[in-house]
Design goal:
Layout (H helix, E strand, L loop, with lengths): L1 E5 L2 E6 L5 H8 L18 E3 L4 H15 L3 E11 L5 E4 L11 E6 L5 E2 L2 E3 L4 E2 L6 E5 L5 E3 L2 E2 L3 E10 L4
Antiparallel strand pairs: 1-2, 2-10, 3-4, 4-13, 5-11, 6-10, 6-13, 7-12, 8-9, 8-11
């Protein structure tokens, strides 16, 4: 496990969390969108994935082993940041988002340009296939650099928490 920390931003990184074979398996479940000249709305490039108890258990066991944080899954989604999309800095502290404290991403591919994760205080992370990240999405302002040349595919987990870090 690696901890990326700048000022009040903290991101936990677990490299090689999923095998390349599993990344390919899940990546193939996410339809390719490519460069369509505009950004599809969030709900048109995400698909529900909440019932995969095997991955959820692997994440919760790993996080508890390394950080002693007990997580409860609120929601999980397949997500496609297609060519040309990006995300400005934001937090998950909006109305309706109160159930979520932490966010995790499993990056399923890394064969694209751009698409780096970044925070307000200067953390930058180039996704690697199989990498798991965990951060407090309600406190850490984060975004995504513009994706170029190929879709960036992830599984995103929205966690409720019982303790804080």
């Amino acid at each position: 496990m690696q901890i990326l920390e700048k000022k009040k931003d903290k991101v936990f990184v677990f490299k090689n969390f999923l095998s390349k074979k599993l990344c390919n398996f899940y990546s193939n479940k996410i339809k390719d969108i490519g460069n369509i000249g505009f950004s599809l709305p969030f709900e048109d490039r995400t698909w529900e994935f909440t019932d995969n108890q095997k991955i959820t258990k692997k994440i919760t066991d790993t996080v508890y082993k390394h950080l002693k944080i007990k997580l409860d899954l609120h929601y999980a989604q397949f997500q496609n940041w297609h060519v040309g999309t990006n995300s400005e800095l934001h937090k998950h502290d909006y109305a309706g988002g109160e159930m979520t404290k932490y966010n995790s991403l499993i990056y399923l591919n890394d064969d694209f340009k751009g698409g780096e994760f970044f925070t307000r205080n200067g953390i930058k992370l180039k996704p690697q296939a199989g990498m798991l990240t965990l951060f407090d999405g309600s406190k850490v302002s984060h975004g995504l650099k513009k994706v170029k040349n190929k879709d960036r595919k992830t599984i995103i987990f929205w966690w409720a928490n019982r303790v804080t870090f």
